[in-house]
């Protein structure tokens, strides 16, 4: 009996040794294990085999690895490269920048919030801005920064090319903000700010007039300024494309100002001199700012969307 047990033990040990040798041999021949650290990987696989995986299953797995080892190794190389790129982007363009944002916030809290604690606590309860600003979404145009606007002073909406669509074009985030600002907050001024080198206006000037040719969301948005484009083309056909765009940048501001008058609740308040509409133009290169005010009595929007506008209080800040 003792001899039989010992014989069986020796047989089991021999089988395990053979399995170990087979596993090591298979892994050694596979390209996937050639990088540094492969020895650890082989030992882990051996442990797995010894902890319940049958030799048949292991042989099938290894056979599959052998037939696809080259493609697998290439795929893993690509994956490792991809992860490295993503990690670098995350650390350089994400985490580090958010750390900087965190420091800016803490600086604001220390140097602004606590210094004007009563003001900010009042703002937490309600807002009563006197101005509404409609500006471009361009990252270089930050009205709060360039005009020194403070929290609670201005209700703001930003979109591509600082456009105000006419009422007949239906709901949008811009006229929803207008409705709230004028009817609920009862702002006293609306300032539409355009700027030089506007990508939205450039897209408008380049696009075809055919409706079927519009292929992007941007084109379907900037078409709200199509009248400004038509007027620009009519008056500046002899000018270069860049000069035409600069003209259209200002023309579109005045078109948005006239579009504001298509909203009855805005037109009524303007007529009663409870609300004033202004235009502004920021020159990025020269850091200058033009400002003008709509002369309501000399302006009109007709049914053909051509209309006319008259301005007053035109000033140039440089």
Explain what you see.
The structure is a single chain. Helix content is 55%, strand content 13%. It is α/β, with parallel strands linked by helices. It is globular. The model is unreliable at 1-6 and 15-91 (pLDDT under 50).
**What proportion of the residues form beta strands (DSSP E)?**
5-15%
Q: State the total count of DSSP E strands.
A: 6
Gap between N and C termini, in Å?
107 Å
Average of per-residue pLDDT values: 79
> Order of SSEs, N→C?
HHHHHEHEHEHHHHHEEE
Ranges with pLDDT <50 over ≥5 residues?
Answer: 1-6, 15-91
Short description:
The chain has helices spanning 2-29, 38-50, 55-67, 69-113, 117-123, 143-146, 173-184, 199-206, 217-222, 226-235, 241-260, 264-271, and strands at residues 131-136, 154-159, 189-195, 276-283, 288-294, 311-317. The protein has 318 residues and is α/β, with parallel strands linked by helices. A 6-stranded mixed sheet has the order 2-1-3-4-5-6, with helices on one face.
Which key phrases capture this entry?
12 helices; globular; 318 residues; 55% helix; disordered N terminus; 6-stranded mixed beta sheet; alpha/beta
How is the topology of this model organized?
Layout: H1 2-29, H2 38-50, H3 55-67, H4 69-113, H5 117-123, E1 131-136, H6 143-146, E2 154-159, H7 173-184, E3 189-195, H8 199-206, H9 217-222, H10 226-235, H11 241-260, H12 264-271, E4 276-283, E5 288-294, E6 311-317
Parallel strand pairs: 1-2, 1-3, 3-4
Antiparallel strand pairs: 4-5, 5-6
